[in-house]
Amino acid sequence: MLLAFTVNSFIYFSFGNIYSSKILNYTDFSQQFHSGIYQYRILSGYFLIWIYDFLSTLNIDYKIFKLKFLDPNSEPQMYLSFYILNTFFMVLSAAILVFITETKNFVATNAEKILISSVAIFAIAFSQFVIVPYDVSSYFFLLLFFYFLLQYLQKRSTLPLAFLMILILISTLNRESSALSLSLAATLLNSKFGLKKEMIQPIFFLAITFIAVYFGMRFLNQSFSTNDGNLLAQNFTEPKNILGLLFWITFFIFTLIIAKDLQTKRYILIFHLLSLPYIMMCFYTGIIYEIRLYIPLFLTSILLGRTELSRIH
Fold it and tell me: Rounded CA gap, 230 and 238, in Å?
């Protein structure tokens, strides 16, 4: 947790942000994140505005931070709000990583556990050259789902399943990438039970929860947009996006290299296969240079690479 706080603080206060400079003020942020696909990612947006409003009540001299901005309209108050929000969830994510690595299903030495968690922290921090309010919190919810899914696999009772459904509900209000939690659940449940009731029933309830929230928000907003345009051609022709694709490939191979055995490599491959809808949407409507899009896949994969289901009885 200290490592997460330290690394994220250096990322925000030691480098000038180029990529997200245009949304570092209240007006431009509100215009972007209350339209298109962004308008459905409401949870962290509310958190960010709450922090921004709270900072307004404090008499802070922002000159002490010696911040440098490329855009003259950038507000130190908004930038600090992003820092507080994302660092808070970064620290929480680090804590959940430790809890996951300390479960009996996670097979690694103490040194390997620390190094795997550290790689995850540095990957999250590095990806924040794109500053948004919902990414780091979405990683936290995904990791929290991973942890309680392992608990459910051991007990397989109604209460843990209900809690997983609540997590899906909350994380979908935050970002639609919560669908990756369904891919994770399907990967582990299918690997453990096969296509049986023990696998199909929980996936059904989790999927219904996701679908209800996903479409419910669109009904309430009377808008049904699922993307902000086709960027497929640019993702395979523009140099920066090709560099982003190289990141995807490199970090995918990395998870396979450090996986414990052939079985855990199979988990990683199955998870990516079940995540194809998310991956295809990233290439169709996302900007692949924004490597943050691969981070949830990466985090899940490095944990799957050390997860041993045979220890669950």
Answer: 14
